[in-house]
Amino acid sequence: MRRSVRHKGNRPVLPLTRSVPIILVFFLLFAVLTGRGLAAQSGTPPVVPSEQAIETAPVIIDDMTLFSLRGTQSYPAAERAAAIADRIRQVAADKRILTASLTVAETEYSTDIMAGEGKIVSIVDADAAADRISRQVLARVYLAKIRSAIEKYRQDRSPESLGRGTGYSLLVAIGFIAALIVLRKIYQGLYSRLESRYKSRVHALHIQSLEFVRVERVWTTITGALKTIRIILTLVIFYVCFHLVLGFFPWTRLLAAHLLDYVMKPVLMLGKGILNNIPNLLFIAVLTILTRYFLKLMKLFFTGIETKTLIISGFDPDWARPTYKIMRLLVIVFAVIVAYPYIPGSESPAFKGISLFIGVVFSLGSSSAISNIIAGYMLTYRRTFKVGDRVKIDEYTGDVTEIRLQVTHLRTVKNEEIIVPNSAILAGHVVNYSTFAREHGLILHTTVGIGYEVPWRQVEAMLKLAAERTSGLLKEPQPFVLQKSLGDFAVTYELNVYIDDPHGMTTMYSELHKNVLDAFNEYGIQIMTPAYEGDPDEAKLVPKEKWFAAPAKPLDDVTKKTGQ
């Protein structure tokens, strides 16, 4: 059974400490992907041109760009280029129009490229002025490009070309299937080799007879990495084959070119960003290596204190692990602060805004968690309890099984797990039964009410007799009896006994109560607690001959069966 004691407002948060590489790599990837744009934001402002830039748009047929044209306010460049491209496609689709029949016609204000009576493009002086040539020369250049584009358009859509594209596509498909089969064979071979050679070694990883890492996780990590590589290679093969197939047909050739750009541009940008920031990245790498080795040295130092190999006067070994965690966090924070100026784009407004946003979110979402963490460290340094102690926290009594950064786990005698926030422990009161139990003994006490007609010396003797009959109690210090109160109808006696194992409190109480009942029944003394109504005709006692009435069995029979 598992129960959790939580205060209102407690929420889980991410751990405060991460490994140095994860933190630095996170900032590194972010900076490389955004550094160029951020640098542009923080750099010198661009020079504003004195004249408005001329808007142009390319004329594209399939995947070939023929030329670019300018537009006007009433006829934008993009619309003009699209209209000209449509006319060229219409001419190319009509095989009755020969490329040799395309001509150049002069008018007063333009030079037109004609296909019979149809106009393909009109070139004005403004078009030629951009290239600093006459419009007649520009028209002849455009005419040659249009003729070449029409010929290529018709050739790509010929039955022979389409047949070759189909055949090549089938070959690519066969190659794709063959590559997947080969990749599968390689994966299965590597997996079998790893399983036969290294799985047993992974399961044998131990340090000082303690399991170093859960072997299931180690093996899952290895096989997961192998599967990830297989998936990446499969995607790469699929991309290459898909790109090739798209390039075999004129209708999808432009998409193939764009598909290549979608992949190559981010890769090139990332590579260029890394090359431009190599000095800073080298500094961050050196800082990371030095920090890692310093953390290892610091861990070795505190491990020596924890195992009592290294003893420092006044420093409790139980403080070693939490102190190491605090020092580790401080070292990581210091390393991040030192590395921050060397992260590309760290001085840009965008980077600062994101850092501020992360800080605000962390502050708002982790207030209760931080209070639990601080409380956990305070409990450790105060030596409130340690793992294995029998404690009582508020109304919960149990053994401490685990002390975490934010919560403490208890296991009750009913085998229930109680999870108590550390802040609740610090704000409440804690009873530790184990602190002085082994050195001075833990006192168990129970009370009985006996009438005034019974001599108090007899009562004390019977209570001490019950204590002597209870196994597991300490002989020294000796049990003692206190007269707690003189009530209206009875005297309240308190029997106090010593034990050295607080984990057996429940069993000891049960055995002690049994022996108290037996002792008073044996000597004919009636216990008058918890309440007194009046003197009965006969004392409420259990005669000795009825102590083992059915289904109870005499102690001799039980001893014979158990052999004890």
Structural topology:
Elements: E1 2-4, H1 20-42, E2 56-61, E3 64-70, H2 77-93, E4 102-106, E5 111-115, E6 118-123, H3 125-131, H4 135-156, H5 159-197, H6 199-203, E7 206-207, E8 210-211, H7 215-247, H8 253-276, H9 278-306, H10 320-339, H11 349-365, H12 367-382, E9 390-393, E10 396-403, E11 407-411, E12 417-421, H13 422-427, E13 430-432, H14 437-440, E14 442-450, H15 456-469, E15 480-486, E16 491-499, H16 505-522, H17 555-562
Parallel strand pairs: 1-12
Antiparallel strand pairs: 2-3, 4-5, 5-6, 7-8, 9-10, 9-13, 10-11, 11-12, 14-16, 15-16
Helix pairs in contact: 1-8, 1-9, 2-4, 3-4, 5-7, 7-8, 9-10, 15-16
Description:
This protein has 564 residues and is an alpha+beta fold. Among the domains are: 56-156, no CATH class; 159-249, no CATH class; 386-432, SH3 type barrels, CATH 2.30.30.60; 437-562, 2-Layer Sandwich (Alpha-Beta Plaits). The chain has 17 helices and 16 strands. The protein is elongated. Mean pLDDT is 79; it is low at 5-51, 206-213 and 558-564.
